[in-house]
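Q: Can I see a sequence and its folded structure?
A: Here is a first one.
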Amino acid sequence: MVAELMIGNAIVPFLFAGAFVLMALGAYHMNPSRNKISGVATGIVATVGGIFMIMNVIMFQSSSSPMGTMGPISNYMAGLGILYGLFFTMIGLILIVGAKLNVMAPIAIVVGWITLAYAVFFNMALGHIIPGGNWIYLASVAYMWFIAMNIAGFSMAGKVSERFNGGFLMWSSLYTFAIPGILMALAIGHV
């Protein structure tokens, strides 16, 4: 139980940063006319959130951190955390300068496929590394991100509706970041 609480303590700030970023990006894409949501404001949220995610990964990777580490899955989660932190930072910077997001379309799709590799790994290996069924949820998050990043990539390329992308980002924010963050913050249990 103590190890699970340490893992929860380490990842909760990361989860909340991700929830804020995805909610901002989801709202941005739900309003394609851009008459209610500022690209610059959304970009600032994404950039700050992405940088915070990277800093949080460094903190939970540090053995001297008061938050502790994430145990046997630290390196795997750090890889994904840095990948998404960099991605969100770049999306944010592009929105701040007002450039088109289509340059990030193939990168989003590649990030999605890398995440699928993690999902397969979680299914195959984490059942042996993490006792109990916690790994099932981690795998489902990775599968969800595979889908989300492909939808985002195809949306940036103009192949998927921007509103659909925004709605899926909002759902992903709740399922993959906000709900597990709340459960871990309240010490209800490690998801």
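Q: Show me another, different protein.
A: A second, unrelated one:
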Amino acid sequence: MLNEGSDMTKRQLEVELGIDGVIYLVVGGRLTNEHIDEFIAWCERVKAMIDMQATKGKSPMLICADATGVICFETKPVMALRSLFDHDKKYTLKTAIVGAKPMTRMMVDAAVSLSGRTNIKQFRMKDEALSWLLESPKVD
């Protein structure tokens, strides 16, 4: 985990595979153009985790991204996020984004739209997100 700055501005960039098979991501703090290299490195760790799960035949892969702590998201990190979404299109994923503030929600919506992904949904609460991720598909 990368943390820098005061409690109000520390960056959090975490990637973890949960025992429930969900890939948990945490993104927080000021994600500025100045720290683009760190954000790109985090995106590469996310891609590697997804690629690893794909080799294990996990489908759909479930991702829960906590954006509660995002304070600022500048242009270059947005482009890196879009690249991550583009990478993920080749897999069957189901992604829940939790806790994004209004500006971050709009940025995520734009990045999702530009990437063409349709399997990403935003939630205010983590329990709602996990319920949606882990629900069984409906059988007709």
